[in-house]
Amino acid sequence: MKTYGISLTKSKFLIVYLDSDTAIPASFIETFSPQATIICFTSAEMAWSWIQVGNRADLIIANVDVGGLSVLEKLRSEKIVPTPPVILITKTITTQLQEKARRLVALDVFSIVSDIDKLNLRVDYLIQKAAYLHSAARWETVDLPELTIPIWKRVLDISVSLAVLIALSPVLLVAAILVFIDHPGPVFYSSKRVGKDYKVFDMYKFRSMRPNADKLIADMSAHNIYNTAETAPTDNSRCENCTRAGIPCQQPLFLKEQLICEREYVNAKKAKAMFSKFRNDPRVTPIGAFLRNTSIDELPQLFNIIRGDMSLVGNRPLPIYEAERLTTSGHVQRFAAPAGLTGLWQVTKRGKSKGVMSDHERIQLDIQYAEKFSFRTDMTIMLRTVTAVFQQENV
């Protein structure tokens, strides 16, 4: 057993990592040791002995090839309370392993060959969520939500989604034909999105843009409705304070062989919008614009809802590059709610020509829903969504 981190204090996030290979844990330790205490075991017997004597972890990461499933099975059979979340890792993910992991209620299964980035994103989220919950409990400033999906919500999701899919099947067929005729290519578009508890999944839509549109996103920041105007620094190598004082830069930073002010660089990074949504997006096809304005392009997400990736009402699942910017204790609570087809921010200000919503306002609405969602809230949002389907802005 090896312990990494400052101390085994209650306030520090504690991770048990089970793996006989040293390469992956070493990289993981380098990434997360500033944020968490990490205890490494090379055998399932050693890990279970540590847990069995009463030690408690905030997260267990266990390699299936080293007995990770046996540790998970013992946790379930012994009914240890509280049971820490368990993430299984393996070289090759099989359908049989996924089914067994689902039956044993594993948090997720990741491939150590291709999913290391996803694993790190999920762990970072869990650490930040724990920090948020600890802070909220200490100051007693919020009513913490139930983090599991209520049965009523899942029943509502499945029954409504199936009914809508059956009723609108002719619309789906016509939309698919029009998408292909308008701009030949794949009818459906899938993208990696981050939902509840920072789980990454493939979200489906009717394609409303020309193919390979994602590659153009870096050149379109000027069209982003969440961007705010930035004030150019008075000097490329000095911040405003140093410029006014007439002194050399006190926080020099060399970036791409150029001297810039670190303070200016940090401020510029903070000024970047956390969300991306574009007005008059030139990548959108003519039929795509109609599908977006009528929200028909969102209908394939009903399959995501049936699969359990999403809910009818929740917080919009974010692309990974957006979600990465929200893994701080002040923002992480939005991921406690399920990903949703519609949600509080859509019916609050979606498509209004006056009073465009800032990214900060949107985050606060997401957090508000995560903390207070209920059956009544969901029904109200669903009814209000009907009147918000036709947008006033081309976004």
UniProtKB/TrEMBL annotation:
The chain crosses the membrane at residues 160-181. Residues 12-127 form the Response regulatory domain. Keywords: Membrane, Transferase, Transmembrane, Transmembrane helix. One of its GO terms (biological process) is phosphorelay signal transduction system. It holds the Pfam family Bac_transf. The keyword Membrane applies. This is Sugar transferase involved in LPS biosynthesis (Colanic, teichoic acid).
